[in-house]
Amino acid sequence: MADIIEKTESLDFIREIISNDVKNGKNGGQVITRFPPEPNGYIHIGHAKALCLDFGVAQEFNGKCNLRMDDTNPTKEDTEYVESIVNDVRWLGFEPAAIYYASDYFDRMYDCAVELIKRGKAYICTLTNEEWEEYKGNLQTPGKDSPGRSRSIEENLDLFARMKAGEFEDGSMVLRAKIDMASPNINMRDPVIYRIRRIHHFRHGDKYCIYPMYDFAHPLEDAFEGITHSLCTLEFEIHRPLYDWVLENLDFPNPPHQYEFSRLNLTYTVMSKRKLLQLVKENHVDNWDDPRMPTICGMRRRGVPAAAIRKMCKIVGVTKFDGITDAAVLEHCIREELNATASRYMAVLDPLKVTITNFPEEGVEALDAVNNPENPDVGCRKINFSKHLYIDKADFMLEPPKGYFRLAPGAEVRLRYGYFIRCTDVVKDENGNVVEVLCTFDPATRGGNSPDGRKVKGTIHWVSADDAVETEFRLYDRLFSVEQPGADGVDFLTQLNPDSKKIVKGFIEPAAAKLAAGTAIQFERVGYFAVDPDTKDSLPVFNRTVTLKDSWSKQQKK
Ligand code: ATP
Ligand code: MG
Fold first, then answer.
1. Among residues 17, 168, 301, 398, which is most buried (max CB within 10 A)?
2. Residue nearest (by alpha carbon) to ligand 1 atom 26
3. Catalytic, out of 136, 151, 263, 275
4. 543 close to 476: Cβ distance less than 8 angstroms
5. How far apart are CA 474 and CA 541, in angstroms?
């Protein structure tokens, strides 16, 4: 992984461009960027890549970055999404210089459209859908001029004003930019810039019945805000000539420039908001913040630290080439971050009773447990050792294979922060399953070392049955069982991982039961977990963020 990290130390192509612009005093050496999400869904880890770039360059070049809700297409937009976006952006560690709404510029955009008409650069077109098919041409054939193209400026102005006033039916006419019907770039064949749609806008109600198209609105939004570098993903590259055309034909001084970079794609998940919405609506996941979702709120609930997401974006870097990032890269960043920051606790997910036969029935002994071996500042806590304990079923075997260093009849093992214990006998149920392990402990091994130099290879985790708190563990795994869900025309919903969520009950030490929702911790030898908001005093709930090691790639190779 180290080689990937080093690569990102040189400037990427966007930072290269910006750095040169600043050196050359372009825009007075200023850098103003924006992050322009459409509030039609929750933002996901792909957006985090754009956020890291937009806010990152602004910060690095002493500029600023706006958060702009791109709310020009009201059909699927909602305040619920606006609130979540603002919250998620801040959680990721970015503070917008200002929060704007593209829809607040509707009147200015209308004026710009009027100006284009006055300059003979836009016209009203009344072609029907069928006619439109016939006139637009295709990649081999140029399009044909709409009869509206020769309409007089006066008539266009009159019709556009009446369009705005609501005199015409939805879909009966549009405003088109007059560019080039023979352009090899279909986006330049007199694109629609305004259409009639009677839809309720979550911010402006029914004030407007005409709405600007993205390709007309976006460059204007950027220009109104004085954006210098408008960064977006590669699918907009083919729209750039139109972006430039709009600004040129309205004579904006120091127009913004658009630069495109590749989208983030991650294996074992989907990223399009349409698909994420489908997962939520059809109950394949519990909600937008389901810990299996690639949404920022889902990742937060799962316990992924914002710093791990930022680190991954840095490793992935900014290029012009579309690719897929292995989910293992994100998991590596999560482990690295949590290893440094997460406090350690003990939990037993699949409990097996252990009785220490030579320990007094009512006896309790407080042992020192290290909170984080990576961070001595956070010190130690006390954990109780008693006659009745729980260990994990996987840490005991009646007939162990060679090389098994955990507990087995006659074998000795170290209890983490505790003593050496030796298994002397087992109790079985009527089916012959081991339900309890009887052990003796060696009082001289307190803290985990034997004064006689006796070695034990295995160390296992445990909790005292006397004060352990029953807990629900939600064990999450990848949402899809294939690397690229939906590839090759397969329905992505048929590729959901049936084992992506398992719920088990076990026990935790009492200190872990007092943690607030959202706290990220490590259960020693088990994995990284975070307290779920569903947690209750009577039943703590923990989400597994990630296992301690990457077990998935091994499993796939089998
Ligand atoms: P989706 O296709 O998932 O619906 P979108 O591109 O429509 O996403 P927007 O809300 O319009 O989502 O995106 C806001 C910004 O985030 C845009 O600049 C867009 O280019 C960027 N963005 C969206 N998805 C990704 C991604 N996967 N990787 C990088 N940037 C992204
Ligand atoms: Mg979009």
1. 301
2. 46
3. 263
4. yes
5. 7
Return the exposure string of 173-198: e unless at least 16 CB atoms fall within 10 Å of the residue's CB, then b.
Answer: bbbbbbbebebeeeebbbbebbbbee
Query: How far is residue 467 from each of residues 56, 361, 364, 473, measured CA to CA in Å?
Result: 48, 14, 10, 18
pLDDT per residue over 259-291, tens digit each?
999 999 999 999 999 999 999 999 999 999 999
Measured distance CA(546)–CA(445) in Å, rounded: 33
Radius of gyration of the chain (CA): 31
Give which of 291, 368, 258, 307 is closest to 48, Cα–Cα: 307
Positions of E strands within 274-393: 343-345, 347-348, 351-356, 364-370, 380-386, 388-392
SS3 assignment, position 493: helix
Q: For residue 49, give the ligand 1 atom closest to its CA.
A: 29
Kindly state the DSSP code that residue 44 receives in the 8-state scheme: B
Minimum-distance ligand to the CA of 233? 1
Confidence class for position 6, pLDDT limits 50, 70, 90? very low
Task: Note the pTM of the prediction, 2 decimals.
Answer: 0.94
- Cα–Cα distance, 510 to 242 (Å, whole number): 62
Per the residue annotation, which of 64, 121, 176, 273 is the catalytic one?
A: 273
Residue ranges around ligand 1 (CB below 6 Å): 36-38, 46-47, 49-50, 232-233, 263-264, 271-273
* 273 a catalytic residue: yes
Sign of the C-alpha dihedral, residues 287, 290, 295, 296?
positive
77 is catalytic: no
3-state class (DSSP) for residue 65: strand
